[in-house]
Design goal:
Low-confidence stretches: 5-56
Family: Belongs to the beta-class carbonic anhydrase family.
EC number: 4.2.1.1
Largest sheet: 5 strands, mixed
Strand content: 5-15%
Organism: Rhizobium grahamii
CATH class: Alpha Beta
Cofactor: Zn(2+)
Number of helices: 9
GO molecular function: carbonate dehydratase activity; zinc ion binding
Radius of gyration: 18 Å
Oligomer: single chain
Strand order of the largest sheet: 4-3-5-6-7
Number of domains: 1
Structural class: alpha/beta
Distance between the termini: 21 Å
CATH topology: Beta-carbonic Anhydrase, Chain A
CATH architecture: 3-Layer(aba) Sandwich
């Protein structure tokens, strides 16, 4: 099965779209209408923001990604710098605006403290979190805001070891409430990598990064122009190290 096919019928009777959403037709129409309005708001915000972002946004995409990986090395080595920054100064500087240099799509798992992992403090990272670090229309819209309005230079989809959402999808067991909605966006990774948890975690992160790059015109255009780098990574809970996936 092509993980990037526009639509895939699922056993539950729902449709998994290329963006990973699980939507019925009325919800899709509602989202499209909302998207048009949101796009107008984003464009307006981008035009009205005449003041260029400060130091963070002057980084190139490669420099932004390197800054994150350098921070992760400090985290692994136990040499955090961000905790020593003056929080009162940081709060005052970011009270009216934010100027993050990178965005991260992370799993909601409480064992993945994104800012600590990359040794970054207030206002440095634009973090979007959802179980399984999957893309949905709302997730994509949030990341598009980070790119179009905030000017982030790197976008990292961060999977992690022992991911419960991925494990539950592989097992395919019945779950209460709406938890099962997480299965559909992760199924393409299971179809691609089989039942090996680590392999599916990596495949899922790469698939979600590719979906963002292909389905979002804002992210695709920024990447094409060399203004943004989109990558997938894996966080090892035991060691604290982040590895980039290629």
């Amino acid at each position: 099965m092509d993980p990037f096919a526009p639509h895939q019928s699922m056993p539950c009777g729902c449709v998994a779209c290329a963006d990973g959403a699980q939507l019925a037709a009325p919800s899709r129409r509602h989202f499209l209408c909302g998207s048009l309005a949101a796009a107008g708001m984003l464009a307006s915000a981008a035009v009205s923001s005449s003041t260029p972002a400060a130091a963070q946004s002057t980084l190139t995409p490669d420099e932004a990604l390197q800054a994150m990986m350098d921070g992760n090395k400090r985290f692994v080595d136990g040499r955090l710098q961000s905790v020593n920054e003056d929080l009162s100064i940081l709060k005052a500087r970011t009270a009216e605006k934010q100027e993050p240099f990178a965005a991260v799509l992370s799993c909601a798992d409480s064992r993945v403290p994104v800012e600590y992992v990359f040794d970054q403090s207030i206002g440095h990272l634009f973090v979007v979190r959802v179980a399984g670090n999957v893309t949905t229309p709302e997730i994509t819209a949030s990341l598009e805001y980070g790119v179009a309005v905030l000017g982030v230079k790197a976008l990292l989809v961060l999977g992690h070891s022992h991911c419960g959402a991925v494990k539950a999808t592989i097992e395919g067991k019945s779950v209460p409430g709406q938890i099962g909605a997480l299965y559909a966006p992760i199924w393409p990774a299971v179809n691609m990598a089989g039942n090996d948890l680590d392999a599916v975690i990596d495949a899922n992160a790469k698939i979600q990064a590719t979906l963002l790059s292909r389905t979002s015109t804002i992210i695709a255009q920024a990447s094409k122009e060399g203004k943004l780098k989109v990558v997938a990574g894996r966080y090892d809970i035991a060691t604290g190290a982040v590895s980039l996936l290629v």
